[in-house]
Specification:
The protein is 51% helix and 13% strand. It has 338 residues and is α/β, with parallel strands linked by helices. A hairpin with a 5-residue loop joins strand 2 and strand 3.
Amino acid sequence: MRLWPSRRTPSDHRLGGYAGNGAAHDHGHATVVERRAAPSRPFVNVVLFLLTCVTTLLAGTAFSGSPTFDAFRRSTDDLAWVLSGVPFAATLLGILVVHEFGHYFTARRYGAAVSLPFFIPAPPFLFMAGTLGAIIRLRSPARDRNEMFDVAVAGPLAGLAVALPAAALGLAWSTVIPAVPHMAFGESLLTKVLIWLRFGAVPDGMMVSTHPVADAAWFGFLVTAINLLPAGQLDGGRIAYAIFGRQHDVIGRVTVTLLITLGLAVTAWAVLRGDGWLAPLFGLNWFVLAALIRFFVGYRAGPILDPVTPPSPWRRGLGIACLLLVLVMLPPVFILPE
């Protein structure tokens, strides 16, 4: 995900707040920077990344299934148990790092002024993954819709290039065991297909005990799917702007409406399933996500110098395919007891 200084598309008089820094690039324009842009402070990025390493490592201790690293849970050495979280943390951080640097290096290739990624640590007792992902700050507007598309799509595609092999490897290390009461991750179409390819039809009374690497890949798919929602400054919002132009605002509002509708549908499903007072919790994540987009992310995709020239045809096709990936990767229910 990228964060712009403003959520509005700048009009001509607002572009006066931007200026070229005099550096010419082979794509034919100078770097455009915001005059009031703060200098980069890598120290903050490094500290946040190290804190995220700690929180994801602690979160990873809750995921078992790796005989090598599970052995650290039984160690008598102080803090050795923390090492049991390495498979989960290393996999999830690998996906997030590659995702964010996909944006970063693509933006730099276009000569854009961009910050290093800001990783967001989170307490594992509140957020199972130990992180809320990461953002980078773009300090210059996109030149045109092709550039906006390329920077937006680079992150999800790069992250998936890590998440898909990680899921395949994690499932290869997973096993089918007799079913026991447990908290299960919700299945998307993608995870259903991957599990079927690895195990075929899982017999009644049995369950897949997933390896921590597979668990981290599940979170990677979830983060990618949320980022691809076509709204505001999310990756999907900027892809939608590149493809559909100013209609992206309407698409963002429809997305929020669909998220609220999905939350209501999941809550009704939980009521019919007999979950009682817990039923509203199953749809809560969709309501929260809709509120975050509506009140914090907004519906504007960020500033662009040439919003008129349409993207190239192959970008339009790839963009539509990426938006459709949301339907494949997003599970209707995130976590449910079984």
